[in-house]
Design a protein that fits this description.
Largest sheet: 13 strands, mixed
Shape: elongated
Number of strands: 13
Number of helices: 15
Structural class: alpha+beta
Number of domains: 2
Low-confidence stretches: 521-527
Mean pLDDT: 84
Distance between the termini: 86 Å
Length: about 525
C-alpha cells in the first residue's frame, strides 16, 4: 500500500510536468468514458432495472391477435376482459386501463387555479392493488366507485399534486373540477410511480391523474371492439408457459362460443410486462452500447499511442531507474499508476458529460424511449464507471508499461542516450494505429448506413402535403357539451371563425392526425 501511494504521488508529479499530454489524454478518455457511461445509464434504467412494481416478474400484458391479417395489439374487449376474470385459474387477477373518454372524461381541470388540460387515464378499481402500488396519501379506489354512475373520484399523481396543488396534504377529501364536474380526490400516488405500457397501447403512459373506469359491461358491444389494455398477475408458482397454455384454451373456448371470434384465428398472448414495455428500444440501445464501446476502445488506443510517444522521451529516465536497482515490476507499477490517474480524471469528466447528456435527453423526451423517468445515475452506474476506469487504465497502460519495464540501461548507454530499438517502438504504435483505423471504419460504415436510412425516411412521401399546415388539439368537456348536436354546433362556429382569420385558406377537423399512433379499433363489415 505504501508503494502504491508513492507510485501515485510520483505519477501525479510526472503528469503535472507535461500538461499538454495530460489534457489531451484526459479529454480523449472523458469523451470515451462519458459516451459509454451515458448509454449504459440509459440501458440500465430502461432494460436492466426491474419495473417499479411489486414482484414485477409476475406481471404480464395481454395481447389479442384478432385473426389472420389483423393487427396484433395489446387491446382487449371489455367482455373478453370479464371472461378472463371468470375463467382463468393461473392468474391471481386481471386489471384494465383505458382512455378517459371511456368514462366520458377529457381531463379538463378548472376551479382552483388556471384552467388546464391534464392527461387522464381510467382504470379498474383493482388496478393499483394488482400492480402493488399503494398511495402515499389517501386510499385506493373502491369496487363501488367503478360502477356506472358511481361516485366521481380521482387519484392524483405526485407531480400533478405538487404542480397544481402545491403539495397540499389536505387535498385528500377535497373536490376538484374535472370537465366541469366535481370529483373527490381520494388519494395521491407515490413519487416514483409511472404507468408503464407497451408503445402500441392506446392510453397515455404518463397520465397526470386517474379515475375509475365506470364502464357499462351490460351494453351490447361486439367482442372485436377492443380498447382495454389488460394487465395480469400470475398466481404464485405459475410460469409464463403455464399461463399461456391456459390463455390458448380460453381463446379456443371464445372461438367456439362467440360469433365475433368464430371465424377468426383469435389468439390470446400473455407477454411479460417488462419485456413488452422495452422490446422496441432494446435492439437500438444494445447497438448504441456496442458503438460507444468501440469509441472507448479508440480512445484507449489514442492514449496508448500518446503514452508510447511519451515513453520514448523518458527512456533515459527508465534506464537510469533500472540502473539504480528499480525492478521491472516497479517500472510497470509506475506507468500503470499514471494510467490509473488519467483514467480516474477521464472518468470524473465522463460523469459530468453523462449528467449533461441525460439533462438534454430528458428535455427532448423522445417518445420511442420507454422508462425515461427510471434513467438516472445510481450505484450500479457508478460501479460500472469505476470498473470502466479500471479496465481502461489497463487497456491503454499495459503496452507502455511493458515497454518501460523492458528498458535495457546498457543498450540505452551504448546508443548514446538515443533510446533502444526504434523499430520495435514503431511496430507497437503501428499496431495500435491499425486497431484505431479498423474500429473507426466500422463506426463510420455504421454511421453512414444510419444517415442513409434517416435521409430515406425523410424523403418518404406520406401521401399528403403537410406544408403550411398548423394543428392543435381541442378537448370538449362532456358536462358542457353532452350531446352530438351541441358539439356539432360548437365545431361549426369554430370552423367559421377560423376561416374568417386573415391568412387562413381552409380549416378541417379530424379525430386523429395521420401517422400519430393507434386508436381504439372499431369493427366494420362489408358485402
Amino acid at each position: 500500500m505504501a508503494n502504491l501511494g508513492h507510485d501515485l504521488r510520483y505519477a501525479w508529479r510526472s503528469l503535472r510536468r507535461t500538461p499538454g499530454f495530460t489534457v489531451a489524454a484526459v479529454a480523449a478518455l472523458a469523451l470515451g468514458i462519458g459516451a459509454t457511461t451515458t448509454i449504459f445509464t440509459v440501458v440500465n434504467g430502461v432494460l436492466l432495472r426491474p419495473l417499479q412494481y411489486e414482484e414485477p416478474d409476475r406481471l404480464v400484458n395481454i395481447w389479442n391477435d384478432l385473426g389472420e391479417g389483423a393487427q396484433s395489439l395489446p387491446a382487449v374487449s371489455p367482455l373478453d376482459f370479464r371472461d378472463y376474470q371468470r375463467r382463468s385459474r393461473t392468474f391471481e387477477g386481471f386489471a384494465a386501463a383505458a382512455e378517459g373518454n371511456v368514462a366520458n372524461l377529457r381531463g379538463n381541470l378548472t376551479g382552483e387555479g388556471a384552467p388546464e388540460r391534464a392527461d387522464l387515464a381510467t382504470v379498474t378499481a383493482n388496478f393499483f392493488p394488482l400492480l402493488g402500488v399503494r398511495p402515499m396519501l389517501g386510499r385506493q379506489f373502491l369496487p363501488e366507485e367503478e360502477t356506472v354512475n358511481g361516485p366521481h373520484v380521482v387519484m392524483l399523481t405526485h407531480r400533478l399534486w405538487q404542480r397544481r396543488y402545491a403539495g397540499d396534504p389536505a387535498i385528500v377529501g377535497k373536490t376538484i373540477e374535472v370537465d366541469g364536474v366535481a370529483h373527490e380526490v381520494v388519494g395521491v400516488l407515490p413519487r416514483d410511480f409511472r404507468l408503464q405500457l407497451p408503445t402500441e397501447a392506446f392510453q397515455v403512459t404518463d397520465a397526470d391523474f386517474y379515475a375509475p373506469i365506470q364502464f357499462d359491461y351490460g351494453q351490447p358491444l361486439p367482442r372485436n371492439l377492443t380498447f382495454f389494455t389488460v394487465f395480469g398477475r400470475l398466481a404464485p408458482g405459475v410460469t409464463i408457459e403455464q399461463a399461456q397454455a391456459e390463455m390458448d384454451l380460453i381463446a379456443e373456448q371464445f372461438r367456439a362460443e362467440f360469433k365475433e371470434h368464430a371465424a377468426s384465428n383469435l389468439r390470446i398472448r400473455a407477454i411479460p410486462l417488462q419485456h413488452d414495455v422495452v422490446k422496441h428500444a432494446r435492439p437500438a440501445l444494445l447497438i448504441l452500447l456496442g458503438a460507444v464501446g468501440m469509441v472507448l476502445l479508440i480512445a484507449c488506443a489514442n492514449v496508448a499511442n500518446l503514452l508510447l510517444v511519451r515513453g520514448t522521451t523518458r527512456r533515459a529516465e527508465f534506464a537510469l531507474r533500472t540502473a539504480l536497482g528499480a525492478s521491472r515490476a516497479a517500472m510497470m507499477r509506475q506507468v500503470l499508476a499514471e494510467s490509473l490517474l488519467l483514467a480516474v480524471a477521464g472518468g470524473g469528466l465522463g460523469l459530468a458529460i453523462t449528467l449533461a447528456a441525460l439533462a438534454v435527453l430528458r428535455s427532448l423526451h423522445p417518445a420511442n424511449l420507454p422508462r425515461l423517468g427510471d434513467v438516472e445515475l445510481d450505484a450500479t452506474v457508478l460501479l460500472f464507471t469505476a470498473l470502466v476506469c479500471a479496465v481502461t487504465a489497463v487497456l491503454f497502460g499495459l503496452v507502455p508499461a511493458l515497454r518501460a519495464a523492458s528498458t535495457d540501461p546498457q543498450e540505452h548507454l551504448k546508443a548514446g542516450g538515443r533510446g533502444g530499438s526504434a523499430g520495435d517502438r514503431r511496430g507497437a504504435r503501428n499496431l495500435l494505429i491499425m486497431a484505431e483505423v479498423a474500429l473507426s471504419v466500422v463506426l463510420l460504415v455504421g454511421a453512414g448506413l444510419l444517415i442513409r436510412s434517416f435521409v430515406a425516411l425523410q424523403r418518404v412521401n406520406p401521401g399528403f402535403d403537410a406544408g403550411d399546415v398548423l394543428t392543435f388539439e381541442l378537448s370538449m368537456p362532456f358536462g358542457k357539451y353532452p350531446g352530438g348536436s351541441s358539439r356539432r354546433a360548437f365545431f361549426r362556429d369554430l370552423t367559421d371563425r377560423l376561416e374568417a382569420l386573415p391568412g387562413v385558406r381552409s380549416v378541417g377537423l379530424v379525430s386523429q392526425l395521420p401517422l400519430t399512433g393507434s386508436g381504439p379499433l372499431s369493427p366494420f363489415a362489408y358485402n
